[in-house]
Amino acid sequence: MLNDILDNSHNYQPGLSIDCVIFGFHDNQLKVLLIKVNQNNKWSLPGGFIPINEDIDTAAVTVLNQRTGVEGVFLRQFGAFGNVKRNEHHFDKKVFKSLKIDPEKGKWLTQRFVTLGYYALVDFLKTIPNSGQYETAEWIDHKEVPELILDHKEILDKALDTLRTELNLMPVGYNLLPEKFTIPELQKLYETILDRKLDRRNFFRKITNIGILVKLDEKKNNVAHKAPYLYSFDKEKYDEVLKNGLNQGW
Amino acid sequence: MLNDILDNSHNYQPGLSIDCVIFGFHDNQLKVLLIKVNQNNKWSLPGGFIPINEDIDTAAVTVLNQRTGVEGVFLRQFGAFGNVKRNEHHFDKKVFKSLKIDPEKGKWLTQRFVTLGYYALVDFLKTIPNSGQYETAEWIDHKEVPELILDHKEILDKALDTLRTELNLMPVGYNLLPEKFTIPELQKLYETILDRKLDRRNFFRKITNIGILVKLDEKKNNVAHKAPYLYSFDKEKYDEVLKNGLNQGW
DNA sequence: CCAAAAGTGTTTAAAATACACCCATGC
DNA sequence: GCATGGGTGTATTTTAAACACTTTTGG
């Protein structure tokens, strides 16, 4: 795939890449989809390049779809990363050899790159991590992220930081949870993102007062203990709140 | 200046630019520093290119310093803009002729450009808009911004939107006001950014409770009516709040 | 029947809002 | 002296925080 790009490097925006921080929620863990290029001992964020005839947001959607198979997810640009030496020494002869890349063509990869960071919220269960021929894709708990290449750790941290901030400005669950979910599950999501416990009763009141939840006439099956009610989002109201924001401070 | 860049275009990151939305506050107006290239009838945001050996943030600081002369101001990246056709047809033969640019060299300018948006908050009075040989720089009330080139209006709108949101997450006045200022002035600043009236008494309580203001033993001179007290910011506490944020919602 | 999780209400504290009076100054 | 803007306090409403009991279910 990289070779395809290098054969047509004039069709790509030079020196500019996209890296996606793809968040999913499962087993009460906030997970991040990471990529490992075979024989490399570091992991990386799924990324890609920008076709010269595609909007940057479109290119980001493409990266996301290639990696997760899901469509119509929440995707938001959160920053550009462009320290001079961020990709210095990343591609060298050894790497080109292992990836079977002609070093002459590979030069395109050794130029200075600025990368655009996008973060995505996806439904873990609808998502099939897409491993390529030379690489492995895997969900990893954000608390157990191994060493990453380049400045990808910094990018990931910024993404999480942005997500935490945006949690105060917009609702979030729609993209990370299945269509039907319980309030305790939603609360766990919030607790996991914020990394602290919330009071059950106060959370219930606050989240229901926003007016984006619909209580269904079903309870969750096959659970130990008292069965919690299922809810879904009122998409229309959800989108309205997404647009207008919550918690206006002044 | 453009010719200097074109003579050394290999020293610049290709297809990537920086545009700055520089905000200042004066006469109870939120002003934006805009540039007009002579003989062109549209205005534009002050922008620049990224030296291949400079961090993107450093390049943004350079653009800002060139245009305003101020240093150490608040500067924050708020987005990348990269629709495919955003700079299509922007530079043509006519433009090259009027700018005395060799069309062959000028080709570098006609490639597809992605731009990084930064917004800056600067002290209006310390700022000298820096006009170049071929262009004029001018402070313009954000409510009276004329037609802008390319997608600069979109960039400006996004900057203002970001500023409004960040007003709920961080204090702001330090960069936009002179060292000594009055509470009513600070309130006007907030009102101008938010585009609505705030209650005087409630604003006073809220802003003083943040704990970033120092009341000075002076009053403002030469004013009609009762002289308001002067205040300054406690920079240490201000920076602390900047870092930790205010109004945590959950 | 009991442990574990879920549903819900009440009391208290804090914050936001609404509102009113007095003070200083220029004209 | 009066219009205008500035300083400050209080009462009320709203929202957030703290907290406890009852219900349901599987084992």
Helix-and-strand structural type of chain A: alpha+beta
Model regions low in confidence, pLDDT < 50 over at least 5 residues of chain A: none
User: Largest interface, and how many residues on either side?
Assistant: A-B, 35 and 35 residues
Q: How much of the residues of chain A is beta strand, in percent?
A: 25-35%
* Main pleated sheet of chain A: 7 strands, mixed
Cα radius of gyration of chain A in angstroms: 20 Å
Oligomeric assembly: homodimer
Total number of strands of chain A: 9
What key phrases describe this protein's structure?
9 helices; homodimer; alpha+beta; 250 residues; DNA-binding
Care to describe what's here?
The structure is a homodimer of 250-residue chains. With 250 residues, chain A is of the alpha+beta class. Helices cover 34% and strands 26% of the residues of chain A. Chain A has helices at residues 2-7, 56-68, 93-98, 103-110, 152-166, 173-176, 183-194, 200-209, 235-244; strands spanning 12-26, 29-37, 43-44, 47-51, 74-81, 114-121, 135-141, 213-219, 229-233. In chain A, the strands form 2 sheets. In chain A, strands 1, 2, 3, 4, 5, 6 and 7 form a 7-stranded mixed sheet that branches. In chain A, a hairpin with a 2-residue loop joins strand 1 (12-26) and strand 2 (29-37). The first copy, chain A, is elongated, with a radius of gyration of 20 Å. Chain A starts with a helix and ends in a 6-residue tail after the last helix. Chains A and B meet through strand 1 and strand 5 of A and strand 1 and strand 5 of B. Chain A binds a DNA duplex (27 and 27 nucleotides) through residues 182-184, 199-202, 204-206, 209, 223-229.
